[in-house]
Amino acid sequence: MDLICYLHPGWRPRIRPASPQRGWMDDTPESFAYRCLPLSIANAHGWEIATPCAVEAWWDGGAGADAVKIAVEGEAEPASAPVSMFGQGVLTFHVAGLFRTPPGWNLWVGGPPNQAKDGIAALSGLVETDWSPFTFTMNWRFTRPNHKVRFEADEAIAFLFPVERAALERFEPRFAALDSAPELEAAFHQWSLSRDAFQKEMAQNPPLKPADRWQKHYYRGVDASGCPHIDDHRTKSRAQPFAPQDAGWTGPPTEK
Hints:
Radius of gyration: 22 Å
Strand content: 15-25%
CATH class of the largest domain: Mainly Beta
Largest sheet: 5 strands, antiparallel
CATH architecture of the largest domain: Distorted Sandwich
CATH superfamily of the largest domain: Deoxyuridine triphosphatase (dUTPase)
Helix content: 10-25%
Number of helices: 5
Structural class: alpha+beta
Shape: globular
Number of strands: 13
Distance between the termini: 26 Å
Low-confidence stretches: none
Strand order of the largest sheet: 2-3-13-8-10
């Protein structure tokens, strides 16, 4: 399936496959945060858009657009610098691209997953990009006044991935007693017992190798008995880079 970013003359969006790396995860002892596979997969489950210039911004607490102050470092094209246009402590980045998804698919647009920023929070939205002829903006809202926030040059300010528009409504959520699914209940109890035994062993005989300090069942895509249940288990998620076309812009490097 195609995901197309149409470029108006002069648009140079810095779009790249999202990185699984996070600074705070690197800083955990032995980088243990990366052992959480769902976390790492979510980090890279889409594309990120970066700002080409370093920016500092702060909010004085007022409701108007003039309550957000912005300082751009160095020279930057006006279209690539953030602005204050909505008021209510919102900082806005223009996204220089007109996206097209296949029929029935939206784009989820928000901040980079698992990447908190002190004093400001990314707002999220779903855009019907299979028909809309309009661009959209990426917005961040300050969480407290008089706190200076900084975005470094080439820092990701938006994250996007396709979502099938009608998928949510097709699900019929319900509760069920665990004992109504005997095989699942048995597998859960087996895992629970193995988990307790593993943690007890770790406390009594700590292993020397970091890799031996976690069970890896989910990471390997198997249950506690070592049995796989699906054929398409993922340990990595990597979006493809946008292919350069005859638009006068080959895009930024795909790696940070």
